[in-house]
Structure formats: structure tokens, C-alpha cells
Amino acid sequence: MSEGYTILSLDEVETASHRGSNLIPVRHTIGFRPAGVNAWIADTGGQLIPPHEEDSGNEELYAVVRGRATFTVGDETADAPAGTLVYVSPQVFRTAAAEEDGTIVFAVGGSVGKAFNAGGWDAFALAVAYGQSGRLDEARAIMEQLIAEKPRYWPTHYNAGCFEAQAGNADAAFEHLRRAKELDDEGHSDEYFRGDNDLDPIRDDPRFQELLS
């Protein structure tokens, strides 16, 4: 990487597990801000794109840059060799699987008329991967960066709390989770607090019930 530009191969980017797929966290790695940009890699039979719909309103464009994939979009299944583009509107179901080893699909997403909001889910996935492999300092550095970028964005504080809960640091977990609650004026976090398995290590702590009250 040099000042003002970055040149790298997708094979150079460290992957992270996310919802049954292997994420190539492009946006986080190069610091791209105008839109959501990431990639996914899998061997034959492996899941490329996690099954989902874009309830946020994001439109997505997928490009198969290597190998071959099978896309399922809505009720249709399509063969997608390298060079294929797949555009999907919001709220349409999509997923994809690899038909060759080393298949890579690049994804770009954004909403019409709205500035891109980098929620940081991709960076959080990398932090979780680091934490699971014992690289706690690197994982915490990612979370600190996300919070510094958006200090009043409750999901980032919530994710930091989840990470610390999984890492066994209950005090830090509750500090982040309390901040998430303070910032979540509309109560969107309630369902996550009640059902997220990431918080299971601290659910028996009396401080957790205080968060729910």
C-alpha cells in the first residue's frame, strides 16, 4: 500500500468466516468508503454468498472473477462462470455456491439516493476471526478503530460487547453494551440482547438483567 492508492490481489487479503461463508474483507482492508465492497471465496460445493435479502434497501451487483458459481436469486437458479454479472434488487432472496475450487465472487452494494453507511459488519467478522485464533490485540484494534470512526453508532458498541463476552472479558463487555443501550434511542438492539448467542457467556451475570430492564 502507498499513499493515495492500493494495489493488491484478492488472494493477499486474509479471509474471515461469516454466516457459513468465507469473506474476503476488501472494504476494511483498503479503507474503501463510498460503497460496500467485499468478496467471497469457496471451493467446490462451498457456500459463497450467505443466503439473505437486503432489507436495508441496498442494491447489490455480484461479479464472478474466478471459477464458476451457481446463483439462486428469487426462484431462479443460474450457472455463473467467470465474467458473469448478477444484479439483485433489495428484498430479493439471493445465495450462491461454488462449482470449482477457488471460486471468487466480488460484491458491490449501496442504496439509491443514500450515502453509504459502513456499519462495520465485515470488519467485525475479521475481528472475530482474529479473536478465535488468539490474536486478541489485533481484534481489539479493529473494534477500537470502528468505534473511533462512529462513536455514536450503537451497533459498533454492541459488537464490541459481543466480542469481549466471547473473549471472557465481562467487565469490558458490559461497558460496551451499556454504551450501546444508551445510544439506541429506538430500541432496535432489544431483540439482539435477548436472542444473540454471542452474549451467552455473560447472561447469568446480574449485570445482564440490568441491561434488559
Q: Nearest-angstrom radius of gyration?
A: 18 Å
Secondary structure category:
alpha+beta
Identify low-pLDDT runs.
none
**How many beta-strand elements?**
10
Outline the biggest β-sheet. 6 strands, antiparallel
Structural shape? globular
> Tally the helices: what do you get?
7
What is the succession of H and E elements?
EEHEEEEEEEEHHHHHH
**Approximate strand percentage:** 25-35%
Oligomer category = single chain
As a percent range, the share of helical residues equals 25-40%
How far the N terminus sits from the C terminus, by CA atoms, comes to 48 Å
**Strand neighbour order, sheet with most strands:** 1-2-3-10-5-8
Average pLDDT, to the nearest integer? 94
Provide key terms for this protein.
single chain; 213 residues; four-stranded antiparallel sheet; 7 helices
What does this protein look like?
- By secondary structure, this protein is α+β, with helices and mostly antiparallel strands.
- Helices cover 34% and strands 27% of the residues.
- The chain contains 7 helices and 10 strands.
- It has helices spanning 26-30, 121-132, 136-149, 154-167, 170-183, 190-195, 206-212, and strands spanning 16-18, 21-24, 36-42, 47-52, 59-66, 68-73, 76-81, 85-88, 94-98, 103-110.
- The strands form 2 sheets. The chain has a 6-stranded antiparallel β-sheet with strand order 1-2-3-10-5-8. Strands 4-9-6-7 form a 4-stranded antiparallel β-sheet, with no helix packed on it.
- The model has no long low-confidence stretch (mean pLDDT 94).
